[in-house]
Design brief:
about 40% helix; about 240 residues; alpha/beta; homooctamer; globular; 2 domains; four-stranded mixed beta sheet; Rossmann fold; 10 helices; five-stranded parallel beta sheet
């Protein structure tokens, strides 16, 4: 049990350093930047403009880079009053504030099947970029016009991680996964006729991909797609 | 109302000609050959050896060609005692009896993704052949090794109808559908890990195909795949 | 391996001829007309009026016939400004532009169960017509009033392909499939009380049809119904 | 509140007369015959031979007619040792004991789609008969061969209640419901290929029937089909 | 085959008498009154005011009683302009026109669990009444306050058929079914918190009722509940 | 942040005391007895006889009372070799070892709907008893024979917690919940015909109970039912 | 049978004391306070302002404490006109009227994962408080920032019952359940991206909790969470 | 179009180099090692011993390392006859053949919740190891005994990728994801009581993880977990 107690001491040391802060509407986890590699991200969908503004303010005051997803133009306007350098991307529905320069490095490729998948793909792009990745985008590459995708193969192969965004039957993830030797993060979207069931068809297809290097995140969750790709992208060398 | 009554007269005339026969265990629809273009097919799965033998006998006595699906070797042995010319295909699980020569014509292509999909693909092949189609098979063409499928494109394009058989994510149907100008009948199979849910993942993917010329039949229903392709294959010329 | 390399050469030759074009919002697959037998179709549902107008413009400029589905009256008005010959069908929610004369040929029959299924049935009709089919329509033929359907049997039997459109329990597909010898494309609709689950009841019924010559497309996807029927309709003679 | 207390007195009077009996493995509800019109029925599926024998014995000793469903041949053998007049129906998987003569009356019709639906249909028949109904059976009437069903229409119309048993797409219930003016009890069966999902496809189809006079019981529950039809069948005249 | 042909003759005779009429938006099945015991009912939910008015007019002109369900106040106003005797029930969302006097007879009881189930229960009541039933209503009898239901038991037992309307866990159907000897038509409603899944919880509960005399119709389909109960209610005496 | 650090100190103090032990096949959480009020329970279903014997041994050596669920007779025999005082209950499929005397206190009542629910109900009983509860059982109280349940009401009302075990439509939980003022733990079972979907129907019914004091555990999880009831049962007085 | 009749007499005595009252829109169960320990609660979601006002009035006139859930500000304004002491909590969407002083006792802890779960958590708090519990709240304790939850462990351990409210993956219930020795009532919320399916993901996770002392209520049903916790909280001592 | 043709030339060059080989039962994709970074893996589940032996032989003859998953002891025995250096891992159900030395590098950590998850976790371990990763395993770390997991945090943080394997509620993935800054591949397992629905509960929980760095593979697919982690692990440095 001796060894175990030492381990627990290390746990304690780690826990002792974890700060958080009680704001009016949320406990902000200031320690997440250190623990998980990126600060807390604001998911705006079920929050009021006032809540978004307050939480964004708390995070922005620390000087770190801030990302808010699923934001409306009104939320962005309120935030930009406080942080004039903050930027709103309408397609991606994101607010970003870059205060700490990050030198873009590595390469994340984002492939999307159709025009309707763009909001999700763009959310992935903005996320990966603020986390330090160089991002290339490859849109409108649905498998029904395979030559459009094949034309991108060389560039895809040079990425360190690929985000594959598709609705309908979600076949894009399997086809991309069969062409490359890097991890593919598949993002199903809710695009499709009735029996897509809000993205379930694409989700199941991606989970059942016959290509081995594919893992999947939640429906329409472009943020998670970009986040996981960026995590992979910034890993140091295996030998180091 | 006058016109309607005439139409009803025609209905009557048609109905009057429809024969059926009460066997011990089933009413055999002898008229189906004329009405639907192929005689009644025996689905053996929930029948006893005795029932299969009796129904096969009734159909075989008419001199027409007979097809039984989901048959066991034991059922086949019993049938072959009565009809020595009947043949059993172990992979396809079919018993066929060819009594009326049919000149193979047209071209049905059957594409399958993996080795595990073979029983379903072979059921489609046997069905299409007994209905008069020339059949070409293209197996082990899963989209994770796209070059294997692309090597078949020329032959696929020469078919009049294509049966695409795949489990897992079922992407094969969309990729094939995007390469050809003929109708694709997609057959989802129950092959896959847990979240394939017995073929539901492939079924949904095929129903949501981003390629337009794809229609779908039931899970593991190779018979329906071959049947629909053969129906299409034997259509007379559009002008004729 | 020699033979394989030749095949790959053919693949190359084919791929080399595939053109596409990067528009502002989409890569237009100009080659699809040749590859799949009909040009790219514009699915308007998640696009802006501006996007529809731009893509329609790119396709229309090539001189080919153009089809846009799930269009609104506002989208149609914008398109018609550019192409005064374009036409909007309110029930079908389609915009069509006929620039290349196609001689109607063959025969596609469209059967629908109830009044509520009309938008889907009409989308199928418009699609089949612009792809060159002669189309006959047979609406309000639900199986609860079987005599209305039986009165149509003769005409249905003369078609080369039938589109069966029904919501609720979707029994229409099976009943029609049992009466004819041509392929039936079943289109489930989202019409029904609570346990229709947005068309799932009809979808499952059609996939489980006890009639053999039935294949199925996505819920409310009248376009796919018409497209598949038209593909079948224009097949050349089996012997040719 | 005065009126309410009188009602409660009546409740009390009723409750006071309700007998039950604690056997070793079950409390037998001897009063059900009076309250619900038929005694407790033994569902054998999850019981041991000993339990079936004991409960059957308790019920049989009262002199009433007894029905056990989902019984095995072994259970039947044990019961028949105690009650030599008891009868086992292998297809229906029922044990019946007729001790109190019931004059068959009225007319319940049982329609079934295919050979595989027979066990469920026969369970309905045995149930309706022991509850006093005259029963006519109409088997192998699937809608893919509509003329077989139409030939039965006259007899179906003379029934007081109809049980419609079908698997696969379950269309039989709607077609029958559209032909008659009496209540139809639909029994979905678990017969079918993959996407029948153990009878869910037929269940949903029957719940969504476009014919108004259809109500539905559980999958493969032939007992409930026969029970409800027999309840309806023995209702006295509306005026009486 | 002789006997069969005679039967077909009878089918013909029956089919020949089936009239229908092509209106602008629907084929009206004027024969349904004879065939199924009540004329075509107008389901207004997906129809325009103009369509409802036109179809109601065609049916009303025949002099029969007319029922329209899921109607809005605006639809009712339009219909009442044409038929001043038509009546709108706001809770039930029905329009009724009584032109042919029907002497109320028999007894249908309608039991409902909570206030939120009233629209469905009232739709059942209006339907059963226009089909000739005497109807008693027993509302707010949820099983959480069992004494409220027990107080109604005597009257429930005197009905010829009972409609049990409940959302949430739908236990009402089983409890009522255990207290009476008449058929219970269970109508699940979409009332409930999240995991009621729009009525699925109640639907499944009712299909799995441990009381034998319960059959089920679609979620929120009060019309079908009333229709089936009224069909049962008006059956002549079993001996007659 | 000062206050927070103190709290973390307390966390540390607590974590430091948590012992566990690496056995060959599992890490045994010896601290659970203190932390959660009962030691680790062995779920035998996916373990080998050897694994069960080893883990049971480790737990038994501490002198505490031990419970193993989903055990087979073979597992029990192996355990009893090591601990002759251990007892096997065949219906409940449990092995229990009582080494530390616990004075039974309080009152947990277990109500079950039918004979088939007994294994689950008995698992709940054994669990509650070894955790120190006095348990009364009330079996075969399905709501279709309501008087059997009403006869138990007085005793149910005297319990501190009730476990309600039912399959099929699971109405028992709601009816019991409406009769008492103590918490009801509902345990759905997988007993039922097809559309019970392995207990889903009962699970949903119980989650949607119209009685307020009902909470639910997993399908067939009698252990969790007994465990939660026993946790509640042994709570000290509210004032204390 | 003698003993049984005595029991029935007790049933009668109990039933005779149960009063209810027929209001215009509902039968109010005045006896529930005695039978279940708290009066009827008004679920406002599908009621009109007038209905809420009337029912609230009937309950308020008795002098007992009243709770209405899922109320709007407009409903609250109407009620407060009649009962100026009534209070509206906007986050919880509750109206409360405290007329009978209840001395807060015991301790119910409410833990919530994120800001979006607050309405559900607050509904639980208001419910538990009006039922007499001292309540502590612990919000924004999602498991992704585990130190925020661990900081609360001491206080959680002192509660008599814990309500754990979480959407997304619902892991909070398991983690809390593993840290304490008191019953945890888990409330899944509908918060989350696409594949949360309106709370199903959290619901299933909670039902499958690997911690034994967790039971679950319906999605977003904060009322049931608070109600069950309060029922447990006020139980007298086990020995008493 | 010029640029596009150049790209196509590159596609051609790439396609020309893709070899495959027609074995009796499968087309072996010898090029996969180059294209995807690891050779074809043999999924044995639906193959015969003979097929496994033949495909293993074809792959083994190339001199590369070979992995077969879901193998039985019989399959392993057959393979080892041909390749005496091949090894069978019974828990992981894998056959491995190491012919090309790979220097283990990097660090993949595998965390599993319970004993029942071991087969899936071990399949992940074997896969990651043959793909060149140093692997540390952390088993029996379910969140109900949180201290067991916290004791592993330091080592988990040093990994380049983590595979989190859990059934039941799958909370492990979220808790691990909140503690580390590296990508977590979550593998749901089919371990659990009824409402785990064969792993669906864990799958949904993992897809909805509130921790951002989690992506998911198919149920019980330990191979995909190990494969994706190994792909990530061997990525070169971001700067390189």
């Amino acid at each position: 049990m001796q060894a175990e107690e030492l381990t627990i001491d290390e746990v304690v040391a780690r826990l002792r350093r974890l700060p958080f802060e009680d704001a009016a509407c949320a406990r902000i986890d200031h320690h997440r930047q250190l623990r998980c590699g990126f600060g807390e991200v604001i998911f705006c969908e079920s929050k009021t403009i006032g809540q978004v503004r307050e939480i964004f303010g708390k995070l922005g005051q620390t000087g770190q880079n801030v990302l808010a997803t699923r934001a409306t133009a009104e939320m962005a306007a309120a935030v930009i009053e406080d942080f004039p350098k903050a930027a709103f991307c309408q397609t991606a529905r994101t607010i970003t504030l870059r205060q700490t320069p990050v030198e873009p490095a590595g390469h994340v490729a984002i492939v999307a099947a159709g025009t309707s998948d763009l909001p999700v793909a763009e959310e992935a792009r903005v996320t990966a970029e603020i986390m330090g990745a160089v991002v290339s985008t490859h849109y409108d590459c649905g498998v029904a016009g395979l030559h459009r995708l094949l034309a991108e193969t060389d560039e895809l192969r040079q990425a360190r991680a690929i985000v594959a965004v598709a609705g309908m039957e979600g076949a894009l993830a399997s086809v991309v996964g069969g062409l490359v030797a890097v991890p593919v993060i598949a993002v199903p979207t809710s695009v499709g006729y009735g029996a897509s069931f809000g993205g379930v068809a694409a989700l199941l297809a991606m989970l059942n991909s016959c290509a081995s290097g594919v893992s999947v995140v939640n429906i329409d969750n472009g943020f998670a797609g970009g986040y996981n790709a960026a995590l992979i992208n910034r890993l140091p060398t295996a030998g180091g």
